Every structure is written in structure tokens, then in C-alpha cells.
Amino acid sequence: MATQPLENGREQLVSTLAAPLRREFKVRAFAHRMNVHEAAEEALTHWQTCHHSPTVPTTGALAWAVSLSVGIPEAFKASCGRRGVTEAQGLAQALSLWLENNPLPTLEPAPQPVARLMIANQKGGVGKTFLASGIAQALAEEGRRVLLIDYDPQGHLTAELGFEDLIYEDDTETLMMHMDGTARQDIHELLVALDHGRFGGRLHLLPASDDAFLRDIALSKVSFSEAALERALEPLEDDYDVIILDGPPSLGLNMDTALYYVRRRAGELADRSGVLSPVWANRASHRAVRLLKAQKDDLCRKGRIEVDYLGLVINAYDSRRGKLVQENRAQWEKSTAPPVMAVIGDLKHGREAADGEIPLLEYAPESDHACAMRDLARELAL
């Protein structure tokens, strides 16, 4: 476990935490109108005053980091030393005790803006569309009202859900027209519903359009272009609980508008909206994430905003591909900013659903891929 100073005057405690506990703690913190960092600070401070806490299983724990007030990480580590427990065990005990002392509240949660998630990685073929579609389906299946936006000019998401013809329709307004202010119709008219019974009419798609390839050029002529997507989508936000973007396949103005859209808004809880990236267990994915993170950080610094990087998903993983693949996975799993949220195997169901233009949860609802999407949806706590 390490302590690292942060630019905001706080300190980052780096440890490991099992996924089920991490997921439950985030959901419970949000239910109590707290950021994860605030709840963790309360948990660690209280744990140090307790004389005994039962041992908590830590099998399968992955890297996890939390921002705390100066001095708390060192005090916590000293308490672990006095008790003779590992720091990972102490962290697990502290969070478990906090959950025990803070059951789900009966009060209404504080009002929050619509949750906004961008699935982003400019490196092609890593599973961006697969994740965006699967998570949206899982959320809709659980009763959430979800808008899925194909923000990738290539239109794979639109095609894989069976709406490819909409990309090339003539005399139709597009998302880009709503972004540059030339649209005359209501943006609701662009939406199509996935009418499968398991989604209960709660899952809608804003399809791609063939003018999206020129979006960077068009945005260069728009005043305050970073906010163009937000201005376009504002009339839709009250209709949904979650809006998910299948992000663009390149860095540039297009990516800036999407990053700005998923920024943390005034009064919004940390790690509620933000960016999730699929990656492969290879060096190219490490480089891609570094470039994406650099653009995000640059936009945050210049725009004085905060964009939460929620996590990584190692996709299409197969340990049989050799030692380098295994080593790259291990390197990813050491990451805390952002952390690895899931590892998804290289299985057939996602490809078959896409080829058949059928939603994954409709095509193979009990498959490992479908279960992974439901787990991710729960962990994101959107």
C-alpha cells in the first residue's frame, strides 16, 4: 500500500479491494448522498477507534485508490501495524464496518443530473461498441430508462442493433445539425426504440449519421464547441436515467465534446458520470489509454472541469495467447487511476449477436458475456 500526494492538497491511499466489496461500498455511499472518497474517509477514521473487527475475505482483490485528507493514510497504516493486520485487510474491515453501520437509507436520494457514461478508446477493435451496447441493455433490463448514442461515425452500434438503413437516410436531420444549430425539428424525432420485451420500452437509440465523419470540421466553426453535444442533448435529459455514448474512434474536437458532456456537473457525486475504457492485454492499449488520459487531463486543466475516469475493462482476454498477454493483464491490474473493473473473456456470444444484429441480452441472456454486462452495470451504480 502506498500514499501519494495529489494536486488538490489531499493524499491518495493505494491498496487492493475485492470487487464485490468495492461495488457494494460505492452503491451504499451514493445512497447516503456521499462521494466514495468521503465515505472511505469516514470508514477509515471510525475503524481506527474500534478495538476489534472480524477478518474479511480479500481473495481476488484488485488495485483500488481513494482520495483522503492529509494524514489519514499514514494514521491508518500505523493502526494496521499496531493491530498486526495487512493494510488490505484493514481497508476491507473498515469498509465492511461502515456498510454494517450505514444500512440503505429510507430517505429519498439527493437530486442528481442524468448519469452520463462515455465508452471511450480511440484504438479500434477493443470492444467499445460491445461494452456500450451491453451495459445499456443490462441497465434497461433492470428498469432504468437508457438512451444509447452512436457517437462513432463508423456507425457499428447502429448497424449491430439492426438500424443501419437509418445512417444513410436522405432529407433527415442529424445529431450534428442539432450540435451546430441548423436543426429545425425536435431532437426526439431522431430516436428509435429497441422493442424487445426484456427492455420494456426503456432502451432507445440515437443512431449514427453519415455526416458524422465531418464532425471535427463542423465543430471548428461552432462557438464554444466543447459544449455543442450538451446543448444538443439537453432537451432529452429529463426523459432518461442514464445516457451512454459509444465514443468517437479518434482524438480531437469530437472527443472533447464527449468528454465535456460526461464531466462532473455542479452538485454531482464523484465517479457517477465519466469515462469507461475497454482495453486489450497488449502494449498498444497501454499507449492508447495514455493518449486518451492526456487529452482528458488537458481539457480538464484548460476548461477547469473534472472528468472522472471510472475504470477499465480488459476485453477479449485469453491467457493461452502467451506470457506477454498475461504480463500485460497483470500490469493493467496494478492500475488505480483508472482501476480495472472487469476482465471479459474472448467468447463467441458477443460476436454472434453483433453479426445477427440482435441485442446480446436478447440473443444469449444467460451467457458469460451477458452476465458480465449485468455485473458491470451494477458496479457502475448509474
Kindly list the characteristics that best describe this protein.
382 residues, alpha/beta, Rossmann fold, 2 domains, 8-stranded mixed sheet, 3-stranded antiparallel sheet, 15 helices, globular, P-loop_NTPase
CATH class of the largest domain: Alpha Beta
CATH names the topology of the largest domain as: Rossmann fold
Rg on CA atoms, Å: 21 Å
Global structural class: alpha/beta
Helix content: 40-55%
InterPro entries: AAA_dom, DNA_Partitioning_ATPase, P-loop_NTPase
Organism: Streptacidiphilus pinicola
Protein name: ParA family protein
Task: Describe the protein in words.
The protein is built from 15 helices and eleven strands. With 382 residues, it is α/β, with parallel strands linked by helices. The chain folds into two domains: 4-101; 115-380, Rossmann fold, CATH 3.40.50. The strands form two sheets. The chain has an eight-stranded mixed beta sheet, sandwiched between helices. The chain has a three-stranded antiparallel beta sheet with strand order 1-2-3. α1 (19-31) packs parallel to α4, α2 crosses α4 (87-101) and α5 packs across α15. The longest helix is centred in the C-terminal third of the chain and has 21 residues, at 283-303. 44% of the residues are buried. The model has no long low-confidence stretch (mean pLDDT 91).
